[in-house]
Structure formats: C-alpha cells, structure tokens
Amino acid sequence: MAEVRKKTILSTVIIYAGFAIGALNTYLFSKQNFFTVEEYGLTRVFLDMVAIMGTLSMLGAQPAIYKFFPFYNRNLKKTENDLLSGALLWGMLGFLIILLAGWLGEDIFIRKFSARSPLLIRYYYWLFPAALFMGLYSVTEAFAWHLEKIAFTNFLRETLFRFITTVLIAIKLTGLISFHTFMICFALQYAIVAGILLYYLVVVQGYKLVFRISRVTRKFFKKMGTLISYVYMGNIVHTIANFLGAILIANTNGLAEAGIYTFANYFVTILQAPQRSIISISIPLLANAWKDKDMATIDRIYKRSSINMLLSSIFIFFIIWLCMDTAVSVFHINPSFLKGKWVFLIMSIYWIIELGTGVNAQIIGTSNDWRFEFFSGVILLSLTIPTNYFLVKQLGMIGAAYSGLISITIYNLIRIGFIWYKYHMQPFTLHTLKLLVIAFAAYGITLLCISSLSGLSYLIVACVVFSVLYLLPVYFLKITPDIEPVLQTLKKRLGLKK
C-alpha cells in the first residue's frame, strides 16, 4: 500500500496542478469583457458532446484493456502484444460509424439547436476530429495505466491539456486570433496529448503496433467480445449521465444558461480530482487481485477509496461553498455566473455520494460479474434521460442537477447492494460517520468566526479556520490510515525527519 500511496499522492498533485490551471482558464472565460457567457457555454457544451461521441466511437476498447491486459502482458513479448493496435483499430472502426451517423443526422442537430444555440451549429463538424482524438487518447491511456504510467497520463490529460487551453485563451485575448480560430484550435487539443502518449508507448516503451493476431487474442476473442458488448453500454450510460445536462440546457434554454450550469459544474469537478487518481491506480490493482482471487486486497481498496475520496471531497466542497459569493465579487467575475450557486450545491451532494461509495464501479467492472455493470447502467439511463428531459424543461438548469442527484443516488445504492450481496463487502466504517460530524461542526463554527468579515480577509480567514477545524480532528482521530504515512513522507522530503 505504500507504493500505492506514493503514486496516489503524485497523481493527485499533478491533477490539482491541472485544476489550478483550469481555475485560471475558468476565471479568464468568466471575467467580465473577456468572453461572453454564450461563448463560454459553447466551449463547455462542445467538450461535453465530444466526451459522449468519443466514448461511443471507441466501442468499448478501454474495458477490454482493463480486463485482459494482465493476460497479454504475462504471455506475450512487447513486440508480439497486439492489444494496443487491436484496440486502436477497433476504435477507428467505431469512429467511422459515428462519422456516418453525424453526416446523416446533421439536419436533426440543426433543428434541435438552431433556435436557442445557433453558435453551436457553426462548429458542428469540428466535433468529429475532437471526438476521434479524445477517444484515441482514452484507449492509449487505459493501456498506459497498466504500465503504471498513471502520473504521466494524468499530466497529459489534466495539466498539459488545460495549459494548451490557457495558451489559446492568451492568444485570443491579445487579439492575434478571432474567436472562430480559437474554437478550431480548441477542438484539436486532444490531437496533441493523444499523439504524445502514443509516441511514448510505441517509441519509448517499445510496444510496437502489431497487426498480426496473437494466440492470446484468439483464446480470449469471444470473451472480449462479450465483455465489450456489456461494459461498453455501461460506459455509454455513465458518460451520458455525466454530460447530458448541459447539452439539454443548451437545447431548451440556450448556451448562456448552459454556460452558467457548466461554470458551477467546473467547481464540482474539483471535488472529483482524488477520484481520478484513485481510479487510474486501482483498476490494474483490482484486475490483478481478481485474477489472484485476493478478496482481502479488494475489500481494503474498497474501504480506503471510500474514506479517502469522501474526506477530500467534503473538504473541497465546504471551502468552495464558504467562498463562492465573495470570490465572485473580489475577482470581478461576471455576476451572472452566481445563478449557478444552487446547482453547485445539488451537484456536489450527488458527487460526494458517488465518491463516498468508493470504487464500486471498478470492482464490478474488473470482476467476473462485469455484466452487472451493464444492467445497472440501463437502470441509470432509464432514470437519467426522462428526469433530465422533464426537469430541465420545468426547472431549467437546476432541474439537470436534481436529475443527477436522483439518478446517481439510486445507481450507487444498487451497486453497493450488489457488492454486499455477492461478496459481503461494503465501503463504510464508523470513521465515515465521524467524518461527517467533524465536517458539519467545522462548517458551523467557521460561519460564526467569519460573520463580520468581507472581501479578501473573509476568503483567507474562512479557508484557514475551516481547514484547521476539519483537518486536525481528522488527523488525531485517525479517520484514514493513509494520513500518517503521507505526513511522514512529506517530513522526509522537506528534511524535517532523518
């Protein structure tokens, strides 16, 4: 577990560095007189559509890599391993299907978005190269995770990608390019990170693109096909559930409201940073544990992922919630974005639920019961689409947040129940309850301490007071066994411990 902690810390630092750059980008997008709310909304809805199309186009190649890489790695040399090349070719086939569907469906797209989001129509065809490169990156990323190159892949996706956006924003604000040129460059960002990672795997790591079917592929071909058909649908469902809200808002209420919704959603994604590193590290560990039938390791990963993600997500939520109103005023952000404050609250609740239940999806997805991920995904989709459609129509952007809360809560209850019934494991301990009590007590006391403050002093005092009141009890009560080793490592790195 020490090596896992080390990798988790490094990945989390890289991810938060990326979020720091992302926060700068969000600030520049939302600052008055830099971009319009509609232009910012366009960039967010564009990426949400790309995420769905990229997932669709890869036809489930990533789950096949997650599950079967250990068998390829154990039985084949690097120069014989055809898993990467097979996954890329499979993804290219899927992209051609998406491209055909997009060509046939252009008129429908125009009818749906021309009235309230006409700016989106102009960049319709740029969605496709963006989706292709995003999908190719996700396939190469899945392969690199099994090579334990998690920090590198997180750097590419979370840090470098956002830095490229920062450069594009800076060039746009200097007047060297128009917004139209900015959007074209924005659409091609994934080409850079996908190209870098593919080069790294093929040239640096030596995994050549092998276009000869190996004996491992022949042996597991049918099983891989069955896995892809089930888990692929589950991935599509989960992706649609995450990204459908902003798209429906753009369709029914326009890009401006979609921009406000995604502004709130950006701060929710900060809560998810620990999940991104933990998932990328846990998938190969879980795959190997299932192969070895090591249930103790799976249970330990389940519980620790739950308490660690819950601890960090609650901390980040309360810091943002305490500071949101004042930060908009202090940093001269367009006040229109404050309309998304309650959206942020509701979305944060359901993501805290998602994170607090640990890596249940990854446990199921790497087990022999991965078919259940498909069936639970069908339930999620049957909840997400109708609740999103009706609630967005009735309530606007907050309806999308309520839809997510309803759908994700039920979805996670089903997954927790299945793992408990099938494997007698669940993610919670007494420390879970202690953590919740600490968090709300720290929040209440902080409110009393800052009630008379305003401006920058309010922001500083709020962050410091809440951090102390929250983190000290967490440390002394030993809420998670990972805190002490992390602190010892930090002391050693800082030269405070010999």
From TrEMBL:
**Entry keywords, A to Z:** Cell membrane, Membrane, Transmembrane, Transmembrane helix
Q: Does the keyword Amino-acid biosynthesis apply?
A: no
Highest taxon listed in the record's lineage: Bacteria
Q: How does it sit in the membrane?
A: Multi-pass membrane protein
Pfam families listed in its UniProt record: Polysacc_synt (PF01943)
InterPro entries, A to Z: Poly_Biosynth_Transport, Polysacc_synth
| Subcellular localization, as worded in the UniProt entry | Cell membrane
A single Gene Ontology CC annotation of this entry is: plasma membrane
Residues that span the membrane, as ranges: 9-29, 49-69, 81-103, 123-147, 159-182, 188-210, 230-251, 263-286, 307-330, 342-360, 372-391, 397-421, 433-453, 459-477
Do you know which PANTHER family this protein is assigned to?
A: O-ANTIGEN TRANSPORTER-RELATED, PST FAMILY PREDICTED COLANIC ACID TRANSPORTER
**Which protein, by its recorded name, is this?**
Lipopolysaccharide biosynthesis protein
Q: What organism is the protein native to?
A: Filimonas effusa
